[in-house]
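From the pipeline queue, job 12 of 40. The input is one protein chain; the requested action is below.

Action: predict structure.
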Amino acid sequence: MIVYDKVELENLTLVEEAHSLKEASFIDSEQYKGISRQLTIPKSSNNLLIRLAFFILGSFLYSSICGFLTLISENAIGENFKVIVFLYATIGFAGAEVLTRLKFYGHGLDDAFIWGSQFTLAVAIGLLTDGNEIIIASIITLTACCSYLRYLHLAMALLFCLALTATLTYAMFELGSIGKTVLPFVMMIFAVAIYFISKTTLPKITNPFYYKGISLANNFSLILFYLSGNYLVVRELSVLLLGAAIAPNTDIRFAFFFYGFTFVVPLFYLIYSILKKDRIMLWIGFLALGFSIYTIRFYYAILPIEIALTLGGVVLFGITYFIIKKLKDKETGVTFMPDRLTKTNAFSNAEILISSQLGLKPEITTKSNLEFGGGEFSGGGSSGEF
């Protein structure tokens, strides 16, 4: 199914690991260059700006081919313009196949054709079905899954998750008001199913090239689960989808459940991620907690915004300083020690910032536990006797 040479993909993984070791100063630049020269890898780009430039260039190439095809076939097609849009999608898939066979992998040129094929296919299906959302979402779900399995394009894994969620959502809309009412609970169950399926699949996976995509689906389920029960999301969707008018001093159904859900889930993410040492889940928990605070303030502005921000900053500053003091000397488990395999020195910068703002000085130990000699003759460590 994978279009690339698996040996070259394994070599690319080795080169990426070598780059991480170089950034962490385990090996020098010459050793890294020696490893890179010895291994044959696909044509890829780790620089986002370069990849974006090639993506723009690939988009121009794709649109130029489609435009040239339109000019030469304008008279033949006439009013059957729907056919030409399907032809655009075919060109996108064919171009992606050609570029990947030429060993372009995450290069930018292949990104333009892979994304362009999905977009034009969605437009073509929409024109053919008069904008039937569930058909568009279901077909894009299938094509995005096939694209990821074949090209290992991580964005296609994300598109698959989004399209699958949209398919289920539009299917619930077909059930009328009942489906729209139970939609938050269905989304919660759906997110839990994705989480446990991906979580149980990761240890059993035999093809390591699909690890990132399954991990992305696992993290996507965490975000989807939280948003499915967030009070702001549920309330606004109730007004939008059901046309429910919420009068003053009234609330939506199961309001207390959604209030509790909005704050319990982020706290659970934070605690569980610390226990399991899951960094991505930790960041998701922090972002979810911040959105929970915004959710409550969106409806209940207890304090003026400037006072609320000031108090929130003071509280976060105090919590951060306390955690740094507790963890800065730990070398195992949850620790504040910088990770040598990461490129950022944010921990060190945060410690310097806090120390400078509070006027703290680094701890310097001047007394040594080393016992010297008597110092009776000639030197400080000699006793003057043989």
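Job complete. The CA atoms of residues 222 and 362 lie 40 Å apart.
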